[in-house]
């Protein structure tokens, strides 16, 4: 039979497709029929020396892990400590830089008092003082309230005492020099007169 005749026979093509399907089904049946082998755990016999060596290795591993954790904790503490030290150094440097300018502000305020009200020079000095105080406030420097406040030795430096029945006890009646603080740190204590 020629190739053309083979192609013309429709029944033979169907037979080939049926044969392929039968072979596939038979292969699936054979694979399902194979018994499943259970996995049995392997057992080993270990000598006393080997057991001691394994225990030593386990102990060395535990010690190495402990050393690593301690080293990591120590490094973390070091990092935090150096960060805090840098911040403190920066704050101290700012304070040391600002302190001399407080004396300049005191002199400007004294010079302001030399001029009469309404004088053009006084108005100029007032503007300079306001600008100076605004710059200090931007840097975090604030004036320590003192006038008519209760005396606080952590904020004020009493240089004089006065007997005054009109004012309450331990009340500041006069401020000789203004005090300033930056955050919680004192730049300069207020020099005051306190009533007893």
Q: How many E strands?
A: 6
Element order: H for helix, E for strand:
HHHHEEEEEE
User: How does the helix and strand content classify structurally?
Assistant: alpha+beta
Can you count the helices?
Answer: 4
- Average pLDDT: 83
Terminal-residue CA separation: 136 Å
As residue ranges, the low-confidence spans are 11-17
Beta fraction of the residues? 15-25%
What is the molecular shape? elongated
The helix content, as a percent range, equals 55-70%
Query: What quaternary form is this?
Result: single chain
For the sheet with most strands, the description reads: 3 strands, antiparallel
Structure in words:
With about 200 residues, this protein is α+β, with helices and mostly antiparallel strands. About 60% of the residues lie in helices and about 15% in strands. It has 4 helices and 6 strands. It has helices at about 5-10, 10-35, 50-110, 120-140; strands spanning about 140-145, 155-160, 170-175, 180, 185-190, 190-195. The strands form 2 sheets. A 3-stranded antiparallel β-sheet has the order 1-4-5. Strand 4 (about 180) and strand 5 (about 185-190) form a beta hairpin. Helix 3 (about 50-110) packs antiparallel against helix 4 (about 120-140). The longest helix is centred in the middle third of the chain and has 65 residues, at about 50-110. The radius of gyration is 47 Å and the shape is elongated. The termini are far apart.
């Amino acid at each position: 039979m020629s190739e053309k005749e083979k192609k013309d026979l429709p029944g033979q093509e169907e037979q080939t497709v049926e044969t392929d399907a039968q072979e596939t089904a038979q292969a699936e049946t054979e694979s399902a029929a194979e018994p499943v082998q259970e996995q049995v755990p392997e057992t080993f016999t270990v000598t006393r020396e080997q057991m001691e060596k394994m225990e030593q290795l386990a102990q060395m591993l535990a010690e190495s892990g402990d050393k690593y954790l301690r080293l990591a904790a120590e490094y973390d503490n070091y990092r935090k400590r150096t960060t805090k030290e840098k911040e403190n150094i920066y704050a101290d440097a700012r304070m040391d830089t600002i302190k001399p300018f407080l004396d300049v502000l005191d002199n400007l305020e004294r010079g302001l008092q030399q001029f009469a009200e309404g004088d053009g020079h006084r108005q100029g000095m007032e503007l300079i003082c306001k600008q100076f105080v605004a710059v200090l406030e931007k840097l975090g420097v604030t004036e320590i309230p003192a006038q008519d406040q209760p005396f606080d030795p952590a904020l004020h430096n009493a240089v004089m005492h006065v007997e005054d029945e009109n004012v309450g006890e331990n009340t500041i009646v006069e401020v000789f020099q203004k005090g300033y603080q930056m955050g919680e740190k004192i730049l300069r204590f207020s020099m005051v007169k306190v009533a007893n």
